[in-house]
Design a protein that fits this description.
The chain has helices at residues 16-27, 39-48, 65-79, 103-131, 152-172, 192-196, 201-208, 219-230; strands spanning 7-11, 31-36, 55-59, 84-87, 134-139, 177-184, 241-244. The chain is of the alpha/beta class and 250 residues long. The relative contact order is 0.15.
Length: 250
Amino acid sequence: MRLKDKVAVVTGGASGFGAGICTTFVAEGARVLVADRDGDAARAMAQRLGGEGSAHALQVDVADEVGARAMIDDAFERFGRLDILVNNAGVGHTPQPLEDLPEDTFDRIAAVNMKAIYLAMRAVVPRFKAQGGGVVLNMASTAGVSPRPRLAWYNASKGWVITATRACAVELAPFGIRVNALNPVAGETPMLKTFMGEDTPEMRAKFLATIPLGRFSTPEDLGHAACFLCSDEASMITGVCMEVDGGRCI
C-alpha cells in the first residue's frame, strides 16, 4: 500500500501504459481519476478498478485548455485533494522520412505530447504550491534519448518532455513539488504497430534485437516504475527521467 490515501490523475489512463499505471496505483491504495479521450474505455477501466471509492472516469481532450483545467478541478471536487498527476497521454506517427510527415499529424503530436503537459501543469501547479507539495510524472520515451530513424518528430516531442521535466523539477523543488519522467522502450500497447509501421514477426524481431533483455515493455512494468517514483519512497528523487527499457539505451 505504497500509495495509501493518495489521489492521482492519470491521462490516457484507459489503455496501454496508462491502464497499467492506474491498475498498480489502485492496488497500492490510491484513488484514481482515469482521464481519457475515449469516455467509454475510461468508464470500463474505472469499473474494472472497483468503481466508486477506487476509480472514476473522465472523458477529456487533454490538449484542450478548458478540458485540462476541468480535469484538475474535477479531481479536487470529487476527491477533495490531489497528490499525483501522471501526464501519460501520447500519440505517435508511422515511420516515414521527416520531410513527408503531414502538418496536421505534426500538430497533433505537438498538442498531445507537449502542449497537454503544459496545460495540465499550468492548471495543477498553483494548487500544488498552495497545498505545499505534489508529484508530477511525465511519460517520455527512449525515443527522446536514443532516437530511431524515420520517427523524427515523435522523437523530438519526447526529447521536449525530458527537458521540460528537468526544467520543471528545478523550478518547483523549493515548493515541495517533485517532477520526474519515465522513458519506456516500445511496449505491448496499441501504439506498438504505429511505431513499427506493421506488426509482423520480422518487424518485431528487428525491434527486439535492439533491446538487451529481449522483450518489449509492458503496462505492468510502467505501473511498477510509476508507483515507485510517485510514492514517498522516492521523496528525494526529482528531475529523473528513468529508463524502463530492458537496456536499450546502454
